[in-house]
């Protein structure tokens, strides 16, 4: 069971990441983990609160973008059933709420939003992005060619 963790601190948020083998078991909790969204780009992971039967499946094929705000300030237990790559979107201010969603088509941005590429090489307004590239959006139209990439928008509420 090998696992690596990464953190990328950005202007208004932090992206955390974990990659690992199948059957990797790990825990995380407040104050270290303040992820409010999980994005799974490879594999399958179950996440739960300790000693609670219910769990959330974080799956790169069927449930890759999950709101985990209900787990904020809680201990979390993760178990992978396959090799995985898992990202977390964290607000710098835990009192600041954010909305998030995956991009599936072209859209109109606004000044409170950020675009983040979690995998692949999409082209946004003619600019090719790479994994973990991000950009502050403005109020204009954005033309998107995903090329199979996983890209999300996060907006301050």
What structural keywords apply?
2 domains; mainly beta; 4-stranded antiparallel β-sheet; Jelly Rolls
What does this structure look like?
This protein is an all-beta fold and 157 residues long. The chain has two domains: 3-91, Jelly Rolls; 98-156, Sandwich (Jelly Rolls), CATH 2.60.120.10. 0% of the residues lie in helices and 54% in strands. It contains no helices and 18 strands. The radius of gyration is 15 Å and the shape is globular.
CATH-derived architecture of the largest domain:
Sandwich
Taking the alpha carbons of the first and last residues, their distance comes to: 39 Å
Low-confidence stretches: none
Shape: globular
Q: Provide the spatial order of strands within the biggest beta sheet.
A: 1-2-9-4-7
List the helices and strands and how they pair.
Layout: E1 3-9, E2 13-20, E3 25-28, E4 35-42, E5 44-48, E6 56-59, E7 65-67, E8 76-80, E9 84-91, E10 98-102, E11 107-108, E12 113-119, E13 123-124, E14 127-128, E15 134-136, E16 141-142, E17 144-145, E18 150-156
């Amino acid at each position: 069971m090998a696992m690596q963790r990464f953190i990328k601190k950005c202007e208004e948020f932090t992206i955390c990441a974990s990659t690992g083998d199948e059957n990797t078991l790990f825990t995380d909790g407040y104050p270290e983990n303040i992820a409010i969204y999980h994005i799974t780009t490879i594999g399958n992971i179950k996440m739960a609160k300790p000693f609670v039967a219910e769990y959330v499946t974080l799956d790169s094929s069927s449930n890759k973008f999950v709101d985990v705000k209900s787990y904020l300030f809680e201990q979390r237990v993760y178990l992978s059933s396959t090799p995985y790559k898992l990202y977390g979107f964290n607000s710098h201010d835990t009192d600041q709420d954010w909305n998030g969603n995956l991009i599936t088509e072209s859209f109109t941005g606004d000044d409170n939003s950020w675009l983040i590429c979690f995998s692949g090489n999409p082209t946004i307004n003619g600019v090719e992005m790479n994994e973990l590239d991000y950009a502050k959006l403005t109020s204009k139209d954005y033309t998107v060619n995903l090329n199979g990439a996983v890209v999300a928008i996060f907006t301050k509420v």
